[in-house]
Amino acid sequence: MSPEVWAMVVAGVAALAAGLVLARDRFVAARGIGKVIVLGPVFEAVALAVFSAEHFTAASDLAPIVPKWLPYPMFWTYFFGTALLAAAISFIIWRCVRWSGLLLALFFLLVVTTISLPNLPGHVHDRFGWILTVRETGFACGAMVLAGSVWPRGNWFGTALVRVGRTVLAPIFVFYAIEHFLFPKNVPGVPLEKLILAGFPAPTLLSYVIGIILLLAGFGLLFRKSVSISAAVSGTVLLLLTVSFYLPIFLMETRSPMAAVEGMNYVGDTLLFAATALLAGFDDHKRLEEISR
Predict the structure, then answer these.
(1) pLDDT per residue as tens digits for the range 18-28
(2) Structural domain boundaries in the chain
(3) Burial of 111 (0-12, 13-18, 19+ CB in 10 A)
(4) In terms of DSSP H, where are the helices of the chain?
(5) Which of 40, 92, 133, 158 could form a disulfide bond with 279, CB atoms 3.0-4.6 angstroms apart?
(6) SS3 label, residue 125
């Protein structure tokens, strides 16, 4: 594997190990499905660490993505790599989470407004342009819910972050579900261009199952009584998809540097989507924990 891929792998493994150790007390204190939801920030940190490492080791490849009107593209590439790493560390050590979550949401919204939306008119009939735009928006929504969840209870701003994040994320889930039904041959989770590998058993069934889960979770996020179960189930399924589907694909593609980078990006994207699903239920998990105490 190339140094870029090694850096992404090492960063992800280190973040996962540290995150699980430092989240132990919160995991033990959580009850029921809350034990899954409480690990959402850990998996978020793992994905952020992976993409941060990519920013540092492949800056010259990522710099052209920086909007042309911004000077010093290499600086911004390293700057955002540092920002992603800072957010990952914050989630792992569980310090300043309200601000790191809020700034992470702002980061993803900046990506949407400065890169995705300006490019959209030229690809208005390309469904993948829409998929990428709502993907970054969805990632922002998960960070918003997390930030709002750790704001003092009853604070109007924290409440607004949770409600807006969850309300916007719900139709994104439904949109992705429809994509799974219409184009079942594309890889599941975040339905991007890559096709499911030939020989994979029951690929259409897999896409339909993931689509049904995302559809139900999307509607479930709109109702308070079903938020926790919707977030926990969809997040868990996406985690299992990352481990059982995308991780083997990455391992099979390590012989080619470019394919390995692509494979690792798919792992990171799906893991970040899984973490986003779990974060959607984080506020409800904390509320139920407070009631039980």
Answers:
(1) 999 999 999 99
(2) 3-292
(3) buried
(4) 3-22, 24-29, 34-37, 40-57, 59-62, 73-93, 97-111, 117-119, 127-149, 156-182, 203-220, 227-241, 247-252, 257-279, 282-292
(5) 40
(6) coil
